[in-house]
Amino acid sequence: MPHRFGHVALIGPTNAGKSTFVNRVVGQKVSIVSPKPQTTRNRITGILTTDEAQIVFLDTPGLHRQTRGISPLLLRSAWNALPMADVVLLFFDAKALVQKPHLIETETRTLVKALSENPVPILAALNKVDQVRPKELLLPVIQALAAQFPQAEVFPVSALTGQGVDELVAAVTRRLPEGPAMYAEDEITTAPMRFLVAEAVREKLFLALGQELPYGLAVEIESWDELTSPGLPRISAVIYVAKQNHKGIVIGKGGEVLKKVGSEARAEIEELLGGRAHLELWVKVKPDWPGDKGFVREMGLGE
Fold first, then answer.
1. Mean per-residue pLDDT for 190-199?
2. What is the pairing mode between strands 53-59 and 4-11?
3. What is the total count of domains within the chain?
4. Domain housing 259
């Protein structure tokens, strides 16, 4: 069998489970996960290498209808992945579509238009099927997606449990062009370590803050010192908030929220680095930073 190589763009509405899928197939967290929509802000690559193929998954920000702040940049990042793709993998939330069938037309309208003249193969993943009971409820959703995308095969999967994931990856592999691997066998992402560390901090913030603070958070690695204490990198990260009153929310009473975030993020960072690390977190106010295009570009958001 010829070896295959190619890029696969994961496109779909927010909170459909694209990041969970990428993390599962590459075997390590490269894209943060949270219950909130619009968690993914950058186009993130996850690289899967098998005997038959090397697949570069492009995890993109979820499609949405918001027009304020950085939302237009996130949309642009998602759509910009399409020209790079050898295969397009559409992702949908099975539970949401079963509960609200009218979302099928709403969430597929722009995709149908964008892909109508796209020559690359298209697959559709109906994710989170583990959350649907009874399973017969999935049939009309699968039929509706097949009607919207007649050129695509629909796969019921659960990125969380792994159900159907191997079959989906095999289908993706069959549709890739022939070619040699372009990355080393042990590479699982093109994202630099600084980016992964910043994302680890941001994920813990999202989980710790619940609904209390919306999306006016950005994280930047300000310094990374491996010389002062060999074997114990000293990492300093800045958490930017858009409003003065948000600073207190992030820090928490007596600093409890920031301590919790720092402890949980450090544990994940040490797993990434394969050793101990020292993490310092600082909170700074950058008024209305989502509307500052220069700052947003410096942070690399929505690329």
1. 90
2. parallel
3. 2
4. 193-298
